[in-house]
Amino acid sequence: MVGKLYSEDLLNRVEKSVADFRARREMKLLLFIDRWLTRVTGWLIIFFLGVMIVMAFGQVVLRNFFHTSIEWGCFSPSLGALARILGAIIALAKAVI
Hints:
This protein is mainly α and 97 residues long.
């Protein structure tokens, strides 16, 4: 009787350790995905904000020094779209964090 209880206890401990190992492995995968998405989101924010700044600065330089400009009919919607994309990415990043 004592041998049977000992083997059941050992079996329960082994099953629990296997379940803990699987849970840890799944958690490591989720943490890896979370860190990766955080980095990608940060780089997207930097990229789109940089593009917007370069586009706006380029427009100012063209107007003041070359007396020309990029036609706003096609330029303004691009900045507007970038602003909406940037806002969505920032909102997503804040919701996740």
